[in-house]
Amino acid sequence: MIKDVDNLLEQKKIRPTAMRILIFKFLKVQKVATSLTDIENAFDKSERTTLYRTLKTFEEHGVVHTIDDGSGVTKYALCEDNCQCDVETDLHLHFHCNHCNETVCLTNHKIPQINLPEGYLAEDVNLVVKGVCDKCNLL
User: How far is CA 80 from CA 9, 45, 109, in A?
Assistant: First the structure.
């Protein structure tokens, strides 16, 4: 697995340091989008700035995408294998549970391309559906 992570990071032009590999592996097993605080709690011996810089590097190189779910806290999730984080082709829905406060990527639910008026240029699109997730709905 480490060799696979090394190769993936190198393909994205990211030097595979020990911390970057650990953070990637941590994000890989998460079922929900994760905040910097969640990552910081998992790596309690690491400096917050190191974790933040790693996430920013991952974001700049298309390894993770950020999610603004309206909670006031940026969340991070790994991009799909073939994702280019392109506004026109790679956008998907996110679901934020008002009960458990978790946010998940709904990658099978793509956001359709939006034709903006002439002269407008989309730089980011964020569509978050809010409600009660399947786990909380069973309670």
Answer: 14, 29, 13
The SS3 of residue 74 is: strand
Q: Tens digit of pLDDT for each residue in 5-15? A: 888 899 999 99
**Burial readout 101-138 (b: 16 or more C-beta within 10 A, e: otherwise):** ebbbbeeeeebeeeeeeeeeeeeeeeeeeeeebeeeee
Mean pLDDT of 108-118: 85
List the beta bridge partners of residue 74. 68
pLDDT tens, residue by residue, 40-96: 999 988 999 999 999 999 999 989 999 999 899 999 999 876 665 655 556 788 999
Q: What is the number of structural domains in the chain?
A: 1
Question: Which structural domain, as residue segments, surrounds residue 132?
Answer: 2-137
